[in-house]
Amino acid sequence: MSDPTRIAIVGATGLIGRAIIDQSVGREDVRILAIGRREMKLPRGCRMEMVVADPGDWGTVFERTRPDVVVSALGTTWNKAGKNEEAFRAVDQALVLNTAKAAHQHGVKRIIAVSSIGADVAAKNFYLRVKGEVERGLLKIGFDRVDILRPGLLRGRRQSDRRAGERIGIAISPIADLLMHGKYRKYRSISDADVAQAVLTLAMRRAAGKFVHEHDALKLAAGHLPRLQG
Questions:
Q1: The whole model's pTM is what?
Q2: Would you call 9 helix, strand, or coil by DSSP?
């Protein structure tokens, strides 16, 4: 049996980070290291390591633990950032890129980054423009493999309350998704579990390259995750 893939998650306390940890329970093919600024409750039966450290020290953590791949699930919201562009960029851009650079500097060859559907450096929407700039920055760092995930509306249980518009979107998503065909399929909603399963699948792929995964590709990758025995 091959050695398990060592996966370091930054942003482990968020929706996707927690979903990845949940989906890793009982798996022998991965080992999870959660890196964050605060402690979190871990699911029962989870075999993993949790490191709480200031972001400025995350490079030291990478150097000590030597993960095979880093998963960046970092991010805030426009409201949590006080609707301030500088505060939003500090997390969604500067922290993401600085963390990726620290990981690469300490020998990590692969990164998986959660972005957003519609990310584009030329987007008029500030949020999507920043996401596009971050994607561009990640591709320039020098990783052997970069997987960029662009999910649509994420369905799952957040620890914090969702905005009213987001709750309505989730409520109507089963119907709305059925109306999205062709080029609009990529805007379909997707569960946090599907994205997490896609992350685990991609983390175990070692072929070099730069890849962007939208709705259908994420669902496909999730379906390729080896199932637990028993």
A1: 0.92
A2: strand
